[in-house]
Amino acid sequence: MPAHPPALPPVRLTSEAELARDALATPLLGRAVRLARWAGPATQVGAGGELLDDQLPEAAEALGLPAGEEGEALAGEAWRVAVDTGLVTVEDPQEGAGGEETPGTAEAGPELALLTGGSPQDVLGVWEAALETVLADAAVPDLEGLAEMVEAGGEFDLDALDWDPEAEEELLELALTNLYTLTLTAGAEAGTPVPLPALAATMVASDEPMGEPSDEVLEFVSDTMMRLDDYFRALEPVGLVEFWPVDEELMADADEEPGAPEPEEDISRYGMVRLTALGRHALRLRLAEAGYEAPVVGDLAGKGADALLDGIAGYPPEAVRDELAAWLAGREAPAAARDLLAAARGADEGAPLRRLRCQEALSLVGSEAEGALREVLDDPELGGLARVWLAERGAGDVPPPSQELVFWLTVDTIAAQLAAEGNSEELRALVEGLADQHSGFFDAAWRVEHPATADVLEAMGRLHPDRKVAKVARKAAFKARSRQGV
């Protein structure tokens, strides 16, 4: 985890009642509940609370699982979850007077009643405890090969696994953090699965410049994809994710791991993962506990306009709209518009983006706010956006803007777009259009009395594809800095 964890995008959360229903429907918790009800006087456990080997077939049968190792493994996992969550209470084995050991016993625990008679929060508490068990297991390597080696007379050698518990746990946490971030920024929250190669690529720690990835990076991505495949196979039954595993044909050669997909190849063959509503809920809690700022859409609805505009500054577009709609709901349009306009004023670095967010908020307000917009027509910072709002609604008697106001609004808009999106293709097109459509633009722009004038002109020089125009923009930026005494 970084020393100062960054703010994460806001998340939409399902109601606790719906999350509780989802938790009860997860396969793993469902099996744990059935085993808790199955446990009784004949149930025998070992020193760690695990079912004795001769009881695993009975547990698998009680769950309706197929006979054999696979069914017993699933039953054993469900039993561990039942014990760890308190759905089952165990008594440790006892040593008799003659030194013989009597197996421990098990019975339904107090948490079982919470799943039928408790609150949604109670249900989620049990599910979250189950998740912790699964996460701990997911970071542990497959010990089957090591067990076979011991049975064959070999030594128990953990080094043979090439397993670093701390590194494995960090890799899993990084994978979940990046999945959460991708989910909230790349449209995956609306249901689009994240390809495993894309998730693995976000986990590359490299100082190399962007471009063609090196063989070392490709090898890391390939290896990480297989780790992710193992993780998400383990995490799907508890309901954290929906998972489409790596195509078995890609792993037909046991000595090779699948490389990065070719450009025209079906990327779904390399595995896809989607965070569920339960997953978004659980990961947000974990990240918040780890020190991340993990907001929820709607958190700002009860705060003032200044907190709103500052709070949504870095939000993705859909979250901005949702947060603005939540803030406006229940507020009178004229008063809301005045509060927003007052909060949008300022000459600080964040002011252009505040005004952009203010303009987005006002686009959701009806014509009853017209009076509030007319009040700021003469305001040097707000008069431009007020004219835009009035013009979009076909209002009459709107004074035309002065040339100085037009140029000031242009600089302010580009400064806001730079803050919101960086060097995006949309901004590149805007810059190119401005320079091409307005002859003498840079001769006038460097004189604009705006704190961001020089930065905007430098950005235009960086973004414009025509080298001659870019040079003119940079010269204008130099003049603006000299004029500002910077």
Write the layout of secondary structure elements.
Blueprint: H1 16-24, H2 27-38, E1 44-45, H3 56-62, H4 69-85, E2 88-91, E3 94-95, E4 101-102, E5 104-108, H5 111-117, H6 120-138, H7 144-151, H8 165-185, E6 194-195, H9 196-201, H10 215-235, E7 241-244, E8 272-275, H11 277-289, H12 305-311, H13 317-328, H14 333-344, H15 351-362, H16 370-374, H17 383-392, H18 403-421, H19 425-437, H20 441-445, H21 453-463, H22 467-484
Antiparallel strand pairs: 1-5, 2-5, 3-4, 6-8, 7-8
Helix pairs in contact: 1-6, 2-4, 3-4, 4-6, 6-10, 14-15, 15-18, 18-21, 21-22
* Topology as a string of helices (H) and strands (E): HHEHHEEEEHHHHEHHEEHHHHHHHHHHHH
Strand content: 5-15%
Report the total helices.
22
Strand order of the largest sheet: 1-5-2
Give me the oligomer status: single chain
Helix content: 40-55%
Tell me about this structure.
The chain is 54% helix and 5% strand. It has helices spanning 16-24, 27-38, 56-62, 69-85, 111-117, 120-138, 144-151, 165-185, 196-201, 215-235, 277-289, 305-311, 317-328, 333-344, 351-362, 370-374, 383-392, 403-421, 425-437, 441-445, 453-463, 467-484, and strands at 44-45, 88-91, 94-95, 101-102, 104-108, 194-195, 241-244, 272-275. A hairpin with a 5-residue loop joins strand 3 (94-95) and strand 4. The two termini are 38 Å apart.
Keywords:
486 residues, mainly alpha, three-stranded antiparallel beta sheet, 22 helices, 8 strands
